[in-house]
Amino acid sequence: MNSISLCMIVKNEELVIERCLTSIADIVDEIIVVDTGSTDRTKEIVQSFTKSIFDFEWIDDFSAARNFAFSKATQNYILWLDADDVLLEEDRNKLKSLKEALSPTVDSVTMLYHLSSDEYGNVTFSLRRNRLVKRERAFRWIGPVHEYLEVYGHVINSDIAITHLSSDQDSDIGRNLRIYQNREIAGESFTPRDLFYYANELKDHRQFEKAIDYYERFLHTEKGWIEDIITTCGKLSDCHHELGNKQLALESSIRSLHYASPRAEFCCRIGYHFLENHHYDTAIFWYKLAIQLDLPPDYMGFHNPSYSTWLPHLQLAVCYDRIGSYMLANEHNETALAYRPEDKTMLANQAYFRNKLQELESQS
C-alpha cells in the first residue's frame, strides 16, 4: 500500500490553513508543516492536524524551505500543497484511487493546478505541475523564488486537480520582487529562468520598461523553456500595449510564431488587433483559427481555456455583425453563451441578433 507525506511551508495562513488541511488530512498518512515565521494563529490551527510542525528561519529562499520540509518526510511518496490550495471532492476521490493503484515504479505524478475560475465555474488559468513524488528519489527544489521541483524518471500525468482558492488576508505582494532586486544589487548571476520571473514581477508592479528589458535579456539567452519563451511574447505584447505602442504589441504577438506553431492566445491577440483596425475578414481568420487549436493533455505551461472557447466566439459575433452576417454572428454568440450563460453582454447580443434576424425575415 502506498503511503503519502504531505509537506507544506506556511507563514501567517490562519484564514486558509484549516480549509486546506481539512480537504486532504484523511487521505495522507503524514502531515509535515514548516513555519517560516508566523505571528498569527497558524501553528495553533495546524496542531489540531499534526504534531510535525517545524520552524525554519526565512532566508529569502523558497527552495531552501521546501527542501527542509521534504527532508522531514518518512512515507513512500511526498505530496506538496500551499496553504491556499484545496482538493475538491471529485479530486479527493481521484487521489484516493491513485494512492491505491499507483505503481511503485512511478517517480512523479503531475496534477493540474487550477489557479482561477470565472463565476460560471470555467477554469480561466491553469498549468500542470509535478505534485506527488517518490521520496527515495530525493528530488530537489531549485531556485530561491518561483521555485520548481526538478524531477526525472518515470513520470505520469493524472487528471487530478489542485484548486487554488485565494483569500482576503493581507499578503506580502512585493516580497518576490524584493528578493530579485536584492539579488540584483548583490551582483548575483541570473539564470534564464530568473530573468523570466524577474521580468514577470516587474510587469506585475507596472515597471513596464524595465520588464521589457529583462524579457529581452531572457529571450536573447536562447536557453529558456519553450513555454516560458512563448509566454514572454505575450507578456511583451502586454507591456508595449500599456506603454501605448500598438505596433510593437502586435509584433510581439507575431513573434510567438517564430518559436512554435500558433497558439489560441496569440490568434486572439492578433485577431483583436485587426478587429480594432476594422479589418474584419482578417480578424475572422485568426479567431476561427483560435477555435480550432487545442493543447495536448500533458501540456505543462500556463493555459487560459478562454482563448479557445467563449472569447473567440464572442469576437466572431462582433466581426460578423460588423459585416452584416447576422446569422453567423448569432450562432457564435450562442456558442459563447453556452460557456457563460448569464453573461450580460452576450445576453444583450442575443436580444439584438434576434431582432436583426426577425427584421431580415420580415423583409424577405
Would you mind describing this structure in some detail?
This protein has 364 residues and is α/β, with parallel strands linked by helices. The chain folds into three domains: 4-164, Spore Coat Polysaccharide Biosynthesis Protein SpsA, Chain A, CATH 3.90.550.10; 175-258, Tetratricopeptide repeat domain (Serine Threonine Protein Phosphatase 5, Tetratricopeptide repeat, Alpha Horseshoe), CATH 1.25.40.10; 261-364, Alpha Horseshoe (Serine Threonine Protein Phosphatase 5, Tetratricopeptide repeat), CATH 1.25.40. Helices cover 47% and strands 16% of the residues. The protein has 14 helices and ten strands. It has helices spanning 17-22, 42-46, 62-71, 89-101, 175-185, 192-204, 208-221, 226-242, 246-255, 264-276, 280-292, 310-322, 326-339, 344-363; strands at 4-10, 30-35, 53-55, 77-80, 85-86, 108-117, 123-134, 140-142, 148-150, 155-164. The strands form two sheets. It has an eight-stranded mixed beta sheet with strand order 3-2-1-4-7-6-10-5. Strands 8-9 form a two-stranded antiparallel sheet. Strand 2 (30-35), helix 2 (42-46) and strand 3 form a beta-alpha-beta unit. Helix 6 packs antiparallel against helix 7 (208-221), helix 6 packs parallel to helix 8 and helix 11 packs antiparallel against helix 12. The chain is globular, with a radius of gyration of 24 Å. The termini are far apart. The model has no long low-confidence stretch (mean pLDDT 95).
